[in-house]
Every structure is written in structure tokens, then in C-alpha cells.
Amino acid sequence: MAQAPQRRVQRRVVDGVLFLDKPVGLSSNRALQKARRLLNAAKGGHTGTLDPLASGLLPLTFGEATKFSQTLLDADKSYDATVLLGVTTTTADAEGEVLETLAVNVSDAEIEAALVRLRGEIDQVPPMYSALKHHGKALYEYARAGVDIPREPRRVTIHRFDLLSRNGDSLMVRVDCSKGTYVRTLASDLGAFLGCGAHLTALRRTKVGPFTLEASISLADFEALEADDRDARLAPVDALLVHLAVLQLDANQTRSFTHGQSAQGLSGAVGEMFRAYDGERFLGVGTLGDGGTLVPMRLVATGNQ
Fold first, then answer.
1. 44-95 confidence digits (pLDDT tens)
2. Which domains does the chain have, with CATH numbers?
3. What is the pLDDT at residue 249?
4. Contact (Cβ atoms closer than 8 angstroms) between residue 241 and residue 68
5. How far is the C-alpha of 260 from the C-alpha of 281, rounded, in Å?
6. CA atoms of 20 and 208, how far apart (whole Å)
7. In the structure, how many helices (H) and strands (E) does the chain have?
8. Is 40 left (phi over 0), alpha (psi -120 to 50) or beta?
9. Catalytic residue, candidates 15, 21, 51, 93
10. pTM of the entire structure?
11. 2 Cβ contact list (under 8 Å, min separation 6)
12. Closest-CA residue to 296 (of 268, 273, 278, 279)
């Protein structure tokens, strides 16, 4: 007897932001899909990936909030990391194969001197085991096939690279950095400067832009909540836009703006992006032009708020 076809799950409209504490062992997309299933949300996205090896803050967006995911892609990030001196690997982290093991004979003062060299604006060569694309194909795919692709150095900013503690050859460090920074490359470069090699053994993201890990919830705790309590954990659609100034629109301005037309008669810094509101109702974001004209850039479906 033929089995009846499985019915497709009917997803619901969910709008908001979940500050998730991603566990080790899950890809960012897998963590997103688990959270999306728990919310039964029709649409979801994330704001920048964390490697499966890494844990920590991963803001997830749902529904109308996905329109603003790009906001955090350009934000600074903070990490606590563990670096093991004396061992280099193919991936510069614990997931790779060991390439070389060397004796470690470095002082704390030598470590500090090496850390200083890696602070500020530096040129960093992206690792082969990364999701960067070359001719439409991720670099890690070439790496797995044994093909090395020349990579141009990229300028990144390391605001902080501090030694928190040392246990033999294992270092606990704290990193504040700009977008595009690979912490495992920092670990590898640190080992190279010290002459003994090194690789990353643990990584935890503690901050993304203005958002900290303290406001997040683990996947296990989120799953343990009742459905209504899960919804209550979502921050509002405009949660990722706290860095933008606010403009209040009157009825006529709101009508124009929500229909994709410029709203007239507003004041503020020309060329800046603003959050637009009708009272407490978030309408979207726009850029202020000459003459007080607010040009809509991203609008939300206001009926879903």
C-alpha cells in the first residue's frame, strides 16, 4: 500500500531578533534552522557566521527583521579564545591535521611583545579553510582537494589582543576586532612571531556591535521554553538598529514613506541613515537628503508588528 505524501508544515509569520548563544559543533545555518523550527517561523536569517568549532553570540533574524541582517555584518566583534603554542595545523585550528610540533620556550614578556605586533591595523591573509569565494567556489573546497589559491592580504583592525591567562603552552586571549578578521589566523601569526607555531583550540564570541553575550539564550534553554515564552524572548524588528538616530513622521510623511516615496519636511544630518517611526510604530530606515527629504531605503510590513 502506497504511503500518503507527507503534509508540508505550515509555517507562521514571526518577526523579531533572537540573540542566541550558539553551541560548539553546530554550523550557524544549522543553529538557525533549529531555532526557526522551534519558533515555527516562515522566514529566518543570521547576521554573520560562526564556525562549528566556535560558540557564543549569534544574532538570528526572523520575518521583517531579516531585512536588517546586513547591519551586523559590518560590526566589530569580540572573542575569548584559547591558543595552543607549539603545534601548527592545516586549518590553524583544532579541526585540522597536525603539520608540525615544536618545543615551546617563550616568556610572558615575549608573548606580550608578539601580541603588540598584532594590534592595530594589520594585513591578514585569509586562510584557505574559509568560506571566501574564488571563481564562485569556497576556498575550503579547493583546500580539501589539495589546491592552494593565492590570497591577497586584507587590512583589518585589531583593537585589542590581550593575554588573559597562561597554563603552560595554552594561552587564554581576548580579541576585539573589525569585520573580516580571522582569529585562527591571529593565533597562527602569533605562533609564527614566537617561532614555535600555534593554533586555535577554542573560540567564544562575546560581543557583536553593541550586543553582548549576557543578553543571549542557549539553544537548549530556548528549546525548553513553552511556545509563548519563546516568542517573548524575541527582540523587536528594529533591535539591530539602535545605533541609528530616530525621526518621527507625521501622518502625511508616514503615508509617503510607507508607499516608497520620499517624506518631506524633516530635519537632521544630511546623508545619514535614520530609523523612521509613526509614534511607536517602526516604519523602516531611510537616508536624509538635502531639503529635509527622507528617502526610504528599507521598509517593513507595518501590519506585522
1. 998 888 888 999 999 999 999 999 988 888 899 999 999 999 999 999 999 8
2. 16-74+211-238 (3.30.2350.10), 77-168+180-198 (3.30.2350.10), 244-304 (2.30.130.10)
3. 97
4. yes
5. 17
6. 12
7. 8, 18
8. left
9. 51
10. 0.90
11. none
12. 273
Spatial distance between the Cα atoms of 29 and 43, rounded to a whole number of angstroms: 13
Q: Which three cell numbers stand for residue 2?
A: 502506497
Q: Are 159 and 177 in contact (CB under 8 A)?
A: yes
246-251 contacts, C-beta under 8 A, 24 or more apart: 246/274, 246/275, 246/276, 246/277, 247/274, 247/275, 247/276, 247/277, 247/286, 247/288, 247/294, 248/277, 248/278, 248/279, 249/276, 249/277, 249/278, 249/283, 249/294, 251/278
Measured in whole angstroms, the distance separating CA 30 from the mean position of its chain's CA atoms is 15
221 is catalytic: no
pLDDT value, residue 49: 84
The set of long-range contacts for 147-151, using a CB threshold of 8 Å and a minimum separation of 24, is: 151/125, 151/126
pLDDT at 8: 67
CA 30 to each of CA 37, 46, 62, 140, 221: distance values in angstroms, whole numbers, following the listed order: 11, 11, 15, 19, 17
